[in-house]
Amino acid sequence: MSTSTKGSKPGKKQGERPFYEKQTDKETSSDIIKQARVSLRPVDTERPFTPQNNDRRLFPTYGRSNERPPSVFSLDSAHFLGSDSQPNSESSSRLPSGSSRAPSGSSRLPSRSGRPPSGGARLQPINHIPEICSSSQAEILQISPPKLPKPPGEQLLTTRSRLKLFNRDVPLLPQPLERRNSNPTPPTKSPVDSRRAHSGPKERTKNFYEERGEGEGAEQIRVLSAEACVNQERSQRTSNVSLTPSERKYSSGRTTKSGIGSRKEKESPEECLLWNTNILPIVEQLVPKNKETEEIDRMCILCDQLFSVLSKLNMLGRTAIRRSETLKIVYKLIDLDSAELSLKASRIVLAFEVTGSNLTSLCKLIFKISKNKENDILFQKNNILDLIVKLIASTNYQKVSDALIYCIGALKFLTGNNAILKDLADYGCTESLARLLININTATMEGLPVAHGVPNLLLQVTGTLRNLADKPATHATFISCQIIPELCKIIDTFPLDGDLMFNISRILSKLTLNQECCTILKNHPTTFTSFLMLMNKHLSNMELIVRLCFIMGNLTAKSNDCRYCLFNTENAMETLLSVFRTYLELDIVNQRSDETLKEKFTKSLQLLKGQKYEDIFIKLVRVIANLSINQDIGPLIAANLNCIELLLQILVLKDVNQSEELVLNTVVTINNLAYYNMPGSMVVEKQIDVCEMLTKLLMMDNQEGMVEATRVFGNLSRSFEVRDYISTNKVDEMMVTLLDSGNREIVYTACGVLINLMVDKSRRPMLKSEGGIRKLIDVLHDFGPLDWQLAGMVCMILCNYSENITCSAECLGEEETSDLIALLIHYLDEEAPLEMTEAADWYEDTIDVMKYYWLTDFYPVATQLISRIEKHNTNLVPLDAP
After folding, report:
1. What is the pLDDT of residues 824-875, one digit of tens each?
2. Which of 81, 690, 756, 835 could serve as 717's disulfide partner, Cβ 3.0–4.6 Å?
3. Which pTM value belongs to this model?
4. Contact 521/527 with Cβ under 8 angstroms?
5. What value, to the nearest 5°, has the Cα angle with vertex 516 and ends 512 and 518?
6. DSSP symbols for 589-640
């Protein structure tokens, strides 16, 4: 240690920053001083890192693939129906992964639940409208009548259901007594008596329509031809597009659907004029001629124009005029396989608020585009993000869970982009997802059965929230929307879903870096019970375990209430130590296999596994260290033999140069437990073993390791056995050597050990023989005005050392005595704490803090020391005994 010139004003060493100097983005000096040298300290660590998934998967590869919708599928315009299907038909809109696309001329029927898709080639439809066949024709065709007859009402229902499959609006036929233009006569026999028991469908159909008239009945039968319906619809669509505005003229009405049924609504002449003038010219051009780049660019421009005009004229939404007609044309643009064009078309479809199977297909399309990172910029350019957020907020998850899975899955990918993440947060994405969580939890709490696909949906929701939680600016929204309690409820509802629990653990590991979020999580009644339960149920899931430990470490770092809550939870310490022992044994086996099975396993793989285990140890040890801060809990942990043995095993197995954070955290934990020097403490029982481990650490070239090991020696050296060990193994000489360090914390901890060593009279000569007196005076000279606590500890060492003083010069040395008296006189001046005022930018409370520590830690012991030295300081040399 360099010594300043005598008589000069004490100051800081070059490169040494005074602890009271103002620092930006840090705690105030008073907080630093209060927490810097307490015997019990919390342990900090970094949040577990998870590399970003570059391939953008909808679900984890190790998940339950048999229960999840496919993430790879084919999609084209044929997957969209001409008009919206009912919302409750979303189950029929699911597309099996890898399903083949039907020929362009064939009709697509939504497959019934549980029925596999038909294979093979589809035949082209026959342009023939069949008529009612006679009984003789039926016999020739060998038509077998059904065994169980159906009444006319059921036959009508079946007919209408078949027609609905082709999106044909079929009017409800009136009952026989309500038919217009008919003169029914009361039957002489009941219909049941007059009907033959085994009558065929031909006869029943004929009798039913005879009441209405043969021509009208035949027309209804003709409609039953599926292929004819599709061909007629497609021909009409083609002809309508080719018409000019003058030829098209005016459409008399349109059909709009609501949540209850359908209704006819007249189209006003003004609406028709707006359509023909502003929209139809654009729609007529939305027919691509080829798939060239120029043609796709032209379609993109037209889509932008169409969306802009529809928005200005307020012709979007469920009740927009010509909605179905416009959608049919826009759907065709998807076949061009252009991500930008498909996204522009999706924006129009979204604005029209499609439902049912069309909504599911639309969400799949958006998801498919979002899987490619290069398409992220397209979502920003096309202003579609706000429409997606509104869709999530307004959609009933119980009816279209598959659609929301793909839609929110796309948001999960997009929130991985920081630029898009900010936009989505501004659009209210966090609030929409929070509302969805509340709806799901409310249904669960009311005892309703869990809807199909809810776990898969929650995976996408939590995955998106996980990305949103990366931004500290969003934490206030997480708090205001009560997302943390809702996540805790999901843990209690789906504890066995490891993927879902992993997502939630990642969210909470980010949020618990915020103290207010920690308070909310602490106040939830099942927090610690749920965490410990998850550790038991998912013991093999290392990624989940390490994050649960990190969350509990954050909660117990600054809250004494959390320490009580966690420790008093049933089987808390047993669970933590069980996880600790399990992974420590795995790590030991892993290290052994690295030596014996080198040919079978590569070294890099083994090191990777070892690093994962080490991360768990770091977080587990941190929880134990934070718990031990509590004055009631600390002694109980110190008395736990299993805990102390596990900590010592870490010091035996790990090297500070390779596992620095783990070793240092372990030493800090042992230091916290060594503070409780009382009967029953296993640290006291094994204090010599601890000292042996720490001596090895002192030999390492690691300053932080030296500081932490010296702190433990400072606690343990209260025991005579430990002081004897220190002297025998020359650790005391190492402490004197550490006084030369430029690190103020190393000097401070070394002084703590020397204070205890100087209690024993037999160990005092070592201090002078090793040059310790001069080094202590240099420490006082260099660090005194910067650190009154350290200055007070130097005075304590010299007081203990000079307990039996008879002559100051003989005890300390003549030059040392003179320098020490001069320094003490200078430092005991009341203005001493303020003499560095002009050298640094002080906080307002720093002056009071400096005076406090000068008055409490330095002044009393320095006054006693200078009084003793001056009392025995004389020029007379004592005579030897005769």
Report:
1. 999 998 877 776 555 555 566 677 777 888 888 899 999 999 999 988 887 6
2. 756
3. 0.72
4. yes
5. 40
6. HHHHHHHH-TTTS-HHHHHHHHHHHHHHHHHHHHHHHHHTTSTTHHHHHHT-
